[in-house]
Write a structure and sequence with these properties.
Number of strands: 0
Shape: globular
Number of helices: 11
Strand content: under 5%
């Protein structure tokens, strides 16, 4: 006697999504009040705020924050929605994930990743070295190289310190604004997760879709991983041309016009994009399930699924939700080359699909 597999949604995940949606809605109240009571200094009046869809001039200034407060109140109720009410939570996901987002979060995240590229490059020899003695020798060699670079003037550590001070100061200036932008992106992700939980809860007792089987997920997940990897190539490879006399970004540019600081910063951004693309492949290859040999202390051990799933889900949500404002910004500022250089509209969904397939293969998402 056989029985057909049925979906068994993880109720714990659904409860976590509902709680997150409730807390997110609570935050909408003070944020809306902040903008309502301080129209000139609120988070939606910041110099960096460039909305994807602007309200008509005829709409009074108080209408936007008032609508946000109302959305927060309704969200407190929607967080406890039943499976049949998933269109309401999907509407929240669409509005806050695609309509109210801006390009600020992706720009900020890109610069943060680029900031750590030199650190990772310096640490790479130590991570790749075999044995304790090998790592000590590698660390000593890296330290000696850094000293030589400073003594010979190749690297101006005083300038680096000044840059870090400037960077930290600017970060402090925009921190509240970026927290609100992060809250909006998080809202899109939270309401999407709650919608998926409600849809799965509505399938109890029904046959599970065939694509949820691990062997099927491995096939379409591999395709999604390679698509996500390919999406990182246009920008990363374009930045690498800055190492050549044939620099290119949206068209050929004179390399002599790129000062060293800009060149280094741009290359760090390019390497960050390419590194992110390589990590996308970890969703489908063995080094995404077992720590590689160059990871001390944990090499060869299984990678805890959430170590890969959580950051990949965050990046997939970020890329997906900023795709609409990014394309809108490119069109608005006549920068159509950005549309193909940053294909977030493909990269985000592809990475999301690859992450889902990985979760199915690792048993985090199951069909029984």
């Amino acid at each position: 006697m056989t029985t057909e597999p049925t979906t068994q949604p993880r109720r714990r995940t659904g409860r976590a999504a509902a709680l997150a949606a409730f807390l997110w809605s609570l935050l909408a109240l003070p944020i809306g009040l902040w903008q309502l009571l301080d129209p000139a200094g609120g988070p939606f009046s910041h110099e960096l705020y460039d909305p994807t869809f602007r309200l008509p001039d005829a709409v009074p200034a108080w209408a936007g924050p008032a609508a946000l407060i109302a959305a927060g109140v309704l969200g407190l109720l929607a967080a406890r929605a039943r499976p049949g009410m998933w269109p309401l939570t999907a509407g929240y996901a669409a509005v806050f994930g695609l309509v109210l987002t801006t390009t600020s979060p992706i720009a900020f995240a890109g610069y943060i990743c680029a900031f750590f590229v030199p650190v990772l490059i310096a640490a790479a020899p130590v991570l790749l070295a075999r044995g304790a003695i090998g790592r000590l020798v590698a660390a000593a060699a890296v330290a000696a190289l850094l000293v030589v670079l400073g003594v010979t003037g190749v690297v101006d550590y005083a300038a680096v310190g000044a840059f870090l001070k400037m960077f930290g100061g600017r970060f402090a200036e925009i921190s509240l604004y970026m927290l609100v932008q992060t809250w909006i992106i998080a809202g899109g992700a939270i309401w999407t997760a709650l919608t998926l939980a409600l849809v799965l809860n509505g399938r109890e007792g029904r046959p599970a879709p065939a694509w949820l089987a691990p062997d099927r997920a491995a096939r379409w997940g591999r395709t999604a991983s390679w698509i996500a990897f390919a999406c990182a190539l246009p920008y990363g490879l374009t930045r690498l041309t800055w190492l050549t006399p044939w620099a290119w970004i949206g068209g050929p540019i004179d390399s002599s016009l790129i000062d060293p600081a800009t060149r280094v910063w741009g290359l760090c951004l390019g390497f960050a994009a390419l590194g992110g693309g390589v990590l996308c492949l970890g969703m489908t290859y063995s080094w995404g399930t077992r720590w590689p040999f160059w990871m001390p202390a944990v090499k060869g051990r299984p990678v805890p699924p959430k170590v890969a799933i959580v950051p990949a889900s965050i990046v997939a949500a970020l890329f997906t939700f900023v795709s609409v404002p990014f394309v809108t910004m490119a069109i608005r500022h006549d920068g159509l080359e950005l549309v193909w250089a940053f294909p977030f509209y493909v990269w985000g969904p592809a990475l999301g699909a690859a992450t889902l397939a990985y979760a199915i293969r690792r048993g985090v998402v199951t069909a029984r």
